Inverse folding.
């Protein structure tokens, strides 16, 4: 069978994904907790790309601008990977007793605080909330795609959709990540996760759009500047929330709150924290302050790629120190899991991106959207 290059890339991604997940499964036979840990941080990252892309798509009808038309195929293609992530949540639900202390009957029997939280942190309610999040995300994805197809008023879908995104991301971030350390609480954590997901989604959309061979008019300086400002906004939002969470906990100096940052700042994990400060905030922030950088395809693409890589490191930083509080511990499953999930995710994304580029017709080239 004669396959075109895009189709061949999808098969390659699928093969890599299957091999990666098979490697993670085989390595997990001897260390199931470590394998599930690796699977969890990779799952959080790629779910963030899908959900963040859906939210980014719904932001555009409320704000307007040429940037939304330019990256619409990319964000919709990424959002359409949500059914895959809904399937991949199953191993986490099945392995919750290995990952989460509140799901372990032995630990629950000897921890009074966990028993007080059992009304919320219990297996049945955990499964229900995870399923409900995906049902709501998929529901708004279907509504939004139909709205585009039938030329419906998109703001009427996007406005409640973003409210649902904020609430469900709060639940997902708390359940999948913060609940790994059930004695710790933060009112900022859900917003931090949501902003990080939208930042990663924007970086992916910009990188994919700039790399497209037929991307309308990507040389339009004002269009590139808008994309740079979009990235800058999310970088500032994520950095502000991360700093305020750290500052608030540092000022309060309470043991129940410090438990999150002690392994992340007093052990070798601090080097990963410095990496995030440098490449998830400082370098992108300083670079995107310059107009010439924001209007350069090369600089914008480099910053978007940097933010994608740094966001993956951030997902690891959020999850792994809860299991390795003594310091950084890298296992083969930490490579196999993101490669496996990433391969499957990329396979679906590339196929959906080809379909979106064929089917999406905004009737307006990006450079013309600045004019009446």
């Amino acid at each position: 069978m004669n396959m075109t290059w895009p189709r061949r890339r999808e098969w390659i991604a699928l093969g890599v994904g299957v091999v990666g997940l098979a490697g993670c499964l085989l390595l997990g036979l001897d260390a199931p907790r470590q394998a599930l840990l690796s699977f969890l941080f990779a799952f959080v990252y790629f779910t963030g790309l899908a959900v963040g892309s859906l939210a980014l798509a719904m932001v555009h009808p409320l704000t307007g601008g040429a940037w939304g038309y330019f990256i619409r195929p990319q964000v919709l293609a990424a959002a359409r990977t949500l059914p895959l992530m809904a399937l991949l949540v199953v191993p986490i639900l099945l392995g919750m007793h290995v990952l989460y202390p509140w799901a372990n009957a032995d630990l629950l029997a000897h921890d009074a605080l966990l028993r007080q939280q059992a009304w919320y942190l219990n297996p049945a309610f955990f499964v229900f909330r995870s399923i409900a999040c995906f049902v709501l995300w998929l529901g708004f994805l279907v509504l939004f795609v139909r709205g585009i197809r039938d030329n419906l008023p998109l703001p009427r879908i996007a406005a409640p959709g973003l409210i649902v995104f904020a609430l469900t991301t709060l639940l997902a971030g708390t359940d999948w990540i913060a609940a790994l350390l059930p004695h710790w609480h933060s009112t900022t954590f859900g917003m931090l996760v949501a902003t990080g997901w939208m930042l990663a989604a924007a970086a992916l959309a910009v990188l994919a759009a700039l790399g497209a061979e037929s991307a309308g008019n990507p040389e339009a300086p004002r269009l590139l500047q808008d994309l740079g400002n979009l990235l800058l906004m999310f970088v500032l939002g994520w950095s502000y929330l991360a700093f305020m969470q750290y500052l608030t906990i540092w000022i309060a100096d309470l043991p129940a709150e410090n438990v999150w940052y002690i392994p992340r700042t007093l052990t070798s994990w601090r080097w990963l924290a410095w990496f995030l400060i440098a490449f998830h905030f400082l370098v992108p922030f300083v670079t995107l302050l310059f107009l010439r950088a924001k209007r350069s395809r090369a600089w914008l693409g480099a910053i978007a790629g940097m933010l994608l890589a740094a966001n993956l490191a951030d997902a690891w930083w959020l999850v792994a120190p809860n299991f390795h509080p003594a310091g950084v511990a890298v296992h083969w499953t930490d490579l196999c899991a993101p490669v496996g999930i990433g391969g499957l995710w990329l396979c679906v994304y590339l196929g959906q991106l080809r379909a979106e580029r064929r089917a999406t017709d905004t009737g307006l080239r990006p450079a013309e959207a600045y004019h009446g």
